[in-house]
Specification:
The chain is built from 11 helices and 16 strands. By secondary structure, the chain is of the alpha+beta class. Strands 7, 8, 9, 10, 11, 12, 13, 14, 15 and 16 form a 10-stranded mixed beta sheet that branches. The longest helix is centred in the middle third of the chain and has 21 residues. It is globular, with a radius of gyration of 21 Å.
């Protein structure tokens, strides 16, 4: 959590040569522009301009000038770059030329929602993520194949699990960048892996998830592999999810938050599952299908895992996948939770997967999910655009 002056001192003292200024389009795809270290002080004060009309979901050519202002609290050194002439990365706030915050800057949107939740509901939200991905081999030209890196299964060990070394390298790299992974293991599918994070505030959790995808892809390529974060890369195998663990700083508000999230589950689905193949994953291989909650079953939209203490109570929201924009998804989940807290909503009874009659299901196609979102007043009010 550096200040602007501390970052400038660090850059001078530690032989930093390049600064990557990172931001996200509306699909959650990370973009960046690199500047020489000598330009950083000016970037803090004046920003760095870019053509917003070339970024998905941003502005038209007639209204395209936007500026990136680096956030000094997000400074990370890229450990795979040279130790002399270092390269660092910072996430940015996007602003108009007149200094106003850009309303489609999803990171700013989430940060403002976190502040609103504290002011209006008196709660902070603690977020942790569990991220799944596949490792595939490359062909002789370096292009991805559908040949999995191994044929291991859930929590297998070496030699069946060939991903141990790569997961270790990923975890070491994350630690070097100031990010603390919690657990890692082989997942159910062949070549499928999972790394989980301890909880943090919502913006940090989103930053960490975005950085994680970048690190995994980089480390996989260095090992001659391709990291696939798509929802359903293999038709007959388990899909990959992005499970979101959420809890309120005031544990007594968790049930109200859960009720609000369940209330708006259909409306949020388009943003949590934004690809056609997202809907091939839902309802299969323990991926959720029903808008309900439970403690043991994994076909429920929300699972409440057994807790060893009050402090470890959490809601595991299981439907999202890594194709989503994590900043927008967390923004919507917090708004839904706030609805539950403000209106003292109570969740329905715990569902029993032996009797699913009468349970609502998540939208089963991208088209139907999009239609629900487009007609939702909640979505319009939560996003503001």
């Amino acid at each position: 959590m550096y200040t602007q002056s501390e970052v400038l001192d660090y850059v001078k003292e530690e032989d930093v040569k390049f600064v990557r200024l990172a931001f996200f389009d509306l699909q959650g795809v990370q973009k960046n522009i690199s500047i020489m270290a000598e330009r950083l002080e000016s970037a803090f004060v004046n920003g760095v301009s870019f053509d917003a009309s070339a970024i998905y979901g941003f502005e038209s050519p007639e209204k395209s000038d936007l500026f990136l202002f680096p956030d000094p609290t997000t400074l990370s050194v890229l450990p795979w770059r040279p130790t002399t002439g270092k390269v660092v990365r910072m996430f940015c706030t996007i602003k108009y030329p007149d200094g106003r915050e850009y309303e489609k800057d999803c990171r700013t949107l989430l940060r403002n929602t976190v502040k609103k939740a504290k002011a209006e509901c008196g709660v902070d939200f603690r977020i942790g993520t569990e991220i799944e991905f596949y490792l595939f081999k490359l062909d002789e030209k370096g292009n991805p194949t559908k040949m999995t890196f191994d044929n291991a299964g859930y929590m297998d060990i070496a030699p069946e699990d060939k991903g141990e070394n790569i997961r270790r390298e990923i975890c070491f790299t994350l630690e070097q960048m100031g990010i603390q992974p919690e657990t890692s293991h082989h997942e159910e599918g062949p070549g499928q892996n999972e790394i989980d994070f301890h909880y943090s505030d919502a913006v940090t959790a989103a930053d960490n998830a975005a950085t994680f995808k970048w690190i995994v892809s980089t480390r996989a390529l260095n090992a001659g592999l391709y990291a696939d974060f798509s929802p359903k890369p293999l038709a007959d195998k388990a899909g990959s999810g992005l499970h979101i663990n959420l809890s309120c700083s005031d544990i007594s508000k968790n049930k109200n938050a859960m009720a609000g999230i369940l209330k708006h589950a259909e409306e949020i689905t388009y943003y949590m599952n934004c690809r056609e193949d997202s809907y091939n994953r839902l309802g299969e291989h323990k991926a959720p299908k029903y808008i309900c909650w439970g403690t043991e079953n994994r076909l429920a939209f929300i699972r409440v895992p057994a807790a060893t203490s009050d402090d470890s109570q959490r809601l595991e929201i299981r439907s999202a996948d890594c194709a989503c924009n994590i900043y927008i998804v967390l923004n919507l989940l917090i708004h839904a939770a706030m609805d539950g807290i403000k209106n003292n909503l109570e969740p329905p009874a715990e569902c029993n997967m032996n009797d699913v009659s009468g349970l609502k299901t998540l939208p089963d196609t991208l088209e139907s999910a999009k239609k629900i979102a487009e007609e939702s007043r909640f979505i319009k009010e939560s996003l503001g655009f």
